[in-house]
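Lab meeting, action items carried over

1. Structure of the three-component assembly. Owner: GW. Status: complete.
Input record:
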Amino acid sequence: MPSEPTGPRAQTSSSEALIEIDHVTFGYDASRTILNDVSLRFARGKVTAILGGSGCGKTTLLRLIGGVHPANQGEVRFQGERVDTRDTAQLYRLRRRLGMLFQFGALFTDLSVFENVAFPLREHSDLEEEMIRDVVLMKLNAVGLRGAAALRISEISGGMARRVALARAIALDPELIMYDEPFAGLDPISMAVTANLIRTLNDATGATSLIVSHDVQECFSICDYAYLLSSQGRVVIHGTPAQLNASEDPAVRQFIRGEADGPVRFHYPAKSMADDFGVQA
Amino acid sequence: MTNPFAWIGSRTLEGLRALGHNAWFFVELLRATPAALRRPYLVTAQIHSIGNLSLVIILSSGLAVGFVLALQSYYALVTYGASESLGLLVNLSLVRELGPVVTALLFAGRAGTSLTAEIGLMKAGEQLAAMEMMAIDPKSRVLVPRFLGGIVAMPVLAVLFSSVGILGAYVVAVQLIGVDDGNFWSIMQSGVDVWRDVGNGIIKSMVFGVICTFVAVYQGYETQATPEGVAHATTRTVVISSLSVLAMDFVLTAMMFSTH
Amino acid sequence: MNKRGVEILVGMFVVLGLAGLLFLALKAANLGSFSASDSYVLLAKFDNIGGLKVRAPVRSAGVTVGRVTSITLDPKTYQGVVKLDVQQGVVFPTDSSARILTSGLLGDQYVGLEPGAEEKNLGAGDTIKQTQSAVVLESLISQFLFNKAADAGSSTPTPAAGGAKK
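Predicted assembly:
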């Protein structure tokens, strides 16, 4: 199990990093450390993927960037500015520059589709109703759901819900868009639609996109750069999709190729067969 | 012999921690109140969903309690030849005790559980986290309006419960049993003091409103984001609200109605 | 449910609550019978106020004409000083008397005012000179026993079985 990244060097500093995770260690409580001295850089204007198995701290990373939890050690920097969770004013200022797509949409169930997308506009901008209506319909159009504006949340499917959530996340044209498992549980068509949307939105608006996922193929089809985290909460490797595909590291190969057994064992640690079944192995 | 002591000790510490957490949460709600008041429609909508939608159960329960109270009191009073005081007895029972307390218990069951479940499900569906990420404080947008809505709705519901109860008792006493109409009202009026009885009853219902709504909102916010978690939270809301209301009722009654 | 509709319903809810409150206050309680605004103050000193409480009624000929507003102890004379709020327009001569009575057999106590015969009337802040304290049950019982014992002593003595009379 390699303990430091063996892949090629990180991208050159010519493309400036919007987000920097600098030697961050974090655990929810003292008994379990989720992220172990990780350092990542997310380049501005690019789509970066964070890959890894369940429970390796990918979603936690998003929460640290959003300032939900303070890092135990190390710093999180948003465009050079240190994210301080105790400074509520700074936190809310930073959060207005980002949009987050939650795993199942996290739409407000008591509002309609239109109201959901209009929510951040109403809260954070002084636009008049007419303008808000235009912006909302444009955002819904970008995700292909302009005709669904009047529907209630209970009336739309899961894939549609995620697209509405995406429209809501980009309502204020954020500089950073974070996607938490955007492909989980989608049918192939919806997956392709979502992947396409992520890429075109990123290119059209010049935003920086972060995708947390364990769907390697979809991510590789749209991302410029990727980080792979291990279950110990460390960065195993980072690089372009081509570089990751070419890696010889067994842990990397097992994840990228989806092999059943490798450095991540199939069997949960147990007694020997002889002990459990009373037979000669 | 250290085991029981350790158990008691740890439970006490846990209880103190929970109490402290409750107090912290209450302060947080107060801190988020000014922001919530900048959007009065949020509070209004909550008064509607908590108050208006509880009217049916409160009014029908009040009527039923008034009927039964009149009947039972009559049977008790007629043996002492004091059946003319029926109105007075019903009024005092309702306005001082049954109105505030029964309304609070019904409120905890109907509105309290709905608040807890709603907030718990919002938490489970990451709606509160989404709001946080959008730089909107979920406390001032979701929790405080519900808290204020409950505090406003409860005294109104308690007053309506008592009023409907008295009217129900009137129907049973005067129309069915035959107590004298004039005496029913006049003896009642001479015996019920506005400030001492009605006023104290309203103060009680305000205190109960704060208790029930706070417990409901707190349980919803602190629920574990799973279906079982939400179910447990709603049960806890009803149990804790009811017990607190009854305990508080004893304290308030002793304070307000002691003969000094 | 659109915004306007909700607001109207909530308004109706609050109005309903106020109506209930008014009903309770006026029809079901004693607010409507006496307003404290036009009234004047009279004082009365009692040796024993018994069970009289603040906000007890002040009645004359059975009609409620005022309220007790405060009960204090005069530290010099050790009498109970009762302050009364009497309706403006109801006046009593200066030699009127105040008694503490019980309504019914076991009811609450109130102050009863009996008008005197003087030409001049009591003004605001005046003290009622003639007062009769509340009836205290213990004094009544001991009085009764004393009377009974006195009756037994003054009736024909029972024939003593021998022994010298003490």
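2. GW to write a short summary for the group page. Key points so far: The radius of gyration of chain A is 21 Å. Residues 56 and 232 of chain A are 6 Å apart (CA to CA).
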